[in-house]
Amino acid sequence: MDYVTEPFLHPIRRLVPPEKMGGLDLSPLILIFIIQAIERFVY
């Protein structure tokens, strides 16, 4: 399933690498916030 999510998560992981966050990958959470912001802007 990585082929579906990786194109969206990879750019975020380059900005906020999990290695610098103690191994915690925050990219899915950040992506959810970005999607919600876009959704609020559109509607």
From TrEMBL:
GO terms for cellular component: membrane. It comes from the Bacteria. Pfam families: CCB3_YggT. This is YggT family protein. It comes from Leptospirillum ferrodiazotrophum. The lineage of its organism: Bacteria, Pseudomonadati, Nitrospirota, Nitrospiria, Nitrospirales.
